[in-house]
Write the structure tokens for this entry.
Amino acid sequence: MRLRYSEWDEDLIRRLLAQRDLMRLFNHLLLQTNGDVEEALEWLKYLQEQGILPPDIDLSDFKRKLKEDRIIDEKNKRLSLTPKGEKQIRQSTFEQIFSSLKTDGRGNHPIPREGGGTTESLPERRPFQFGDNASDIDFNVSITNAMKRAGVDNWSLAEPDLAVQESDSATTCATVLLLDISHSMILYGEDRITPAKQVAMAFAEMILTRYPKDALDVVLFGDDAQQVKVRDLPYVGVGPYHTNTQAGLRAARQILMHRKHHNKQVFMITDGKPSVIRRANGQLYKNPVGLDPIIVNRTLDEAVICRRKQITITTFMVTSDPYLQQFVRKLTQLNQGRAYFTPPDRLGGYIFWDFLRNRRKRIR
């Protein structure tokens, strides 16, 4: 069994158990064990032995149902997630995060540009205003308003009677989710990678199901950057890596330049400053102490290139260290992007809120 040193969140376990939702607890453990089904089941057994999991819960029956529902199966004498199981985790995390999302004030960041897209009608109606398109007038409601005002015998249609149908103009968007997997994501007694993975899967599920015309790619960055499939997210883990933010941004930019969508953006989840770059000769240049000007400048150069390519970088900083925030503010300024400083347990709300708010513009 692998060891991960992080703060024991017994309250979280008890909240899940209070809802009698063993599946949600199992999904949470899967994220912490990087998708290892057998280890997650061992943790359930351990929690029951410690008296945290009620003794009346039949874990053998739970395991049998997982197999019957094709959430897990056995290959080469080892249990693993099925494609259905991987999708089930994404759906569960999406429902958990989206159901608790509150669009409260988290800063005013205007969308940098608008692209073409489709228009979706809304049920609301409002009075006609100068400048509204005639095609947006709801004549059924307008005629009803005129009859209420003047009656049937003296019927006439005046401007105050006109009602306009509200609509949302939705643009297509290509997003790269850039996820920090450096070692600091599990250091200092705080597990940051698990909520980051959870939010990444929930975000992916929203894009796949609600915005199928959008594009979503996932890039991990540590010493280097690599693109992974959405289905690989449950198995992502941190490594003994430094933070090569430049490589992550470059990989995201290269992916987005091949996308034909009107809007292109990078959502970067990180908890630290850049601490490594790869030189032209292929060697890694590392400096984990302070803000190394060579590493920082190379990273900021990449942010400027992204801005010139009309790629917005939104940084979600899962730490409150003012020293590290200094770098993020500079990167945001040069890219003309957005930045949020948020604890891991509120990361989902910030990401969903920013995406939904900046993807749509209400037409008045």
In short: The CA atoms of residues 56 and 206 lie 36 Å apart. DSSP finds eleven helices and 13 strands in the chain.
